[in-house]
Specification:
By secondary structure, the chain is of the alpha/beta class. The chain folds into 2 domains: 115 residues, Lyase, Ornithine Decarboxylase, Chain A, domain 1, CATH 2.40.37.20; 221 residues, Alanine racemase (TIM Barrel, Alpha-Beta Barrel). 29% of the residues lie in helices and 24% in strands. The chain binds pyridoxal-5'-phosphate.
Length: 384
């Protein structure tokens, strides 16, 4: 018998190729509906431009350089990243203006940031003198420059200092370091973003903006001007734009509008559509009015609720994604309603976009049901 021919180990093919139809996509796969996505980009940029407020979209939502470039092309002044490491693939892709909307602690992170800022315009937040000391040491060692934002707590109870004297103490800490420029204030209230009622969200955003305005006024009274006041997210942006307080806004999820954001009552001023889906396949059809999908916890974040089953451009009226196991999704049909056949594809709107993106290597960009491109989620897993 002749010896067996040597064979190469196969490599994993991509989930889809340009020109494929939806049915040809190997699931679970993350899908971007380009028409809805571009409408969202245009609507947000138009709203910001009309209000004369700079748009600095948050890249933590998408982690995808191709999306950042599309935002910049429409007029965004730069992007935000939440972690220093997250900024790397964006810088590599040519995004030159990146705000780290977060604090960094310790020299390794400060050194990486100081290194990155030799290649672009970088800024970062502080709320403690020790953070300033680390940034000062790192930028001095590398002869680099950073803009430093002082984060204020406007009600979220996360990071940020509480009062004007604390801001002044941080300004004193910055003063001896000419390579660290005071960029302004960051004021973000995450709790406002998901207040469901439109009027209630408007009121909550107004309370947060009032706290920001009070801080700006207290600093002005102490002779300190804030060149930039940055903050806001997708749920509050329409109110923040009109507040007159913010010079720059940081919405992230608006590009996708996950199922959680879909539960917010929308206002007339800013209409945003679901553009992000997980394509999944019915892998088993059991009894008891249920079928099993191939997309569970490893394909979808469920911290903000289970995904919506999406059919014919709307949430399904008969199918409910009832539970997520690691690799399985359990879908139940309403009484008397039919179940999809084994092998059929179901689209799901994820509950929370940010951690869902972090589970996927690529976004399959689709227009009119046809795959156009695969966009690497290049900052996936970069959480340091
Ligand atoms: C500091 C900061 N800015 C902006 C955002 C963007 O928020 P969203 O994705 O809800 O628009 C977030 C989200 O958590 C954030 O933490």
């Amino acid at each position: 018998m002749p010896p067996p021919l040597p064979t190469l180990l196969p490599t994993l093919p991509p989930a889809a190729h340009a020109g494929d139809t939806l049915a040809a996509i190997d699931t679970p796969a993350l899908l971007l509906d380009l028409d809805a996505f571009e409408r969202n980009l245009d609507a947000m940029q138009a709203a910001a431009s009309a209000a004369g407020v700079a748009l600095r979209p948050h890249a933590k939502a998408h982690k995808t350089p191709a999306i950042a470039l599309a935002q910049l092309q429409r007029g965004a002044v730069g992007i935000c990243c939440q972690k220093v490491s997250e900024a790397l693939p964006f810088l590599q892709a040519g995004v030159a203006d990146i705000h780290i909307s977060n604090q960094t602690v310790g020299l390794p992170k400060a050194m990486l940031l100081a290194q990155l800022s030799l290649h672009g315009r970088f800024s970062v937040c502080v709320d403690a003198v020790q953070q300033v000391a680390d940034l000062a040491a790192a930028t001095a060692a590398l002869a680099s420059r950073l803009a430093v934002f002082i984060e204020i707590d406007i009600g979220q109870g996360r990071c940020g200092v509480a009062d004007a004297p604390a801001v002044l103490r941080l300004l004193d800490a910055l003063a001896p370091h000419p390579q660290l420029r005071f960029g302004g204030l960051q004021a973000y209230q995450g709790g406002v973003q998901h207040v469901r009622g439109h009027a209630q969200r408007r009121d909550a955003a107004a309370r947060a903006a009032e706290r920001t305005a009070a801080m700006v006024a207290a600093l002005a009274a102490a002779g300190v001007a804030c060149p930039v006041v940055t903050g806001g997210g997708s749920g509050s942006v329409e109110f923040d734009l009109a507040s007159g307080v913010y010079t720059e806004l940081q919405p992230g999820s608006y590009v996708f509008m996950d199922a959680d954001y879909g539960r917010n009552e929308a206002g007339a001023a800013l209409r945003l559509d679901h553009s992000l889906f997980v394509a999944s396949t019915v892998m088993s059809v059991g009894g008891g009015g249920r079928c099993i999908l191939d997309a569970g916890l490893k394909s979808l974040a469920v911290d903000s609720g289970l995904p919506l089953v999406w059919q014919a451009g709307a949430p399904s009226s008969t199918l409910t994604y009832a539970a997520a196991n690691d690799e399985h999704g359990i879908v139940r049909a309403a009484d008397g309603a039919g179940l999809p056949a084994l092998g059929s594809q179901l689209l799901l709107v994820p509950g929370h976009c940010d951690p869902t993106l972090n589970l996927h290597d690529a976004l399959v960009a689709v227009r009119g049901g046809v795959v156009q491109d695969l966009w690497p989620v290049a900052a996936r897993g970069l959480s340091r």
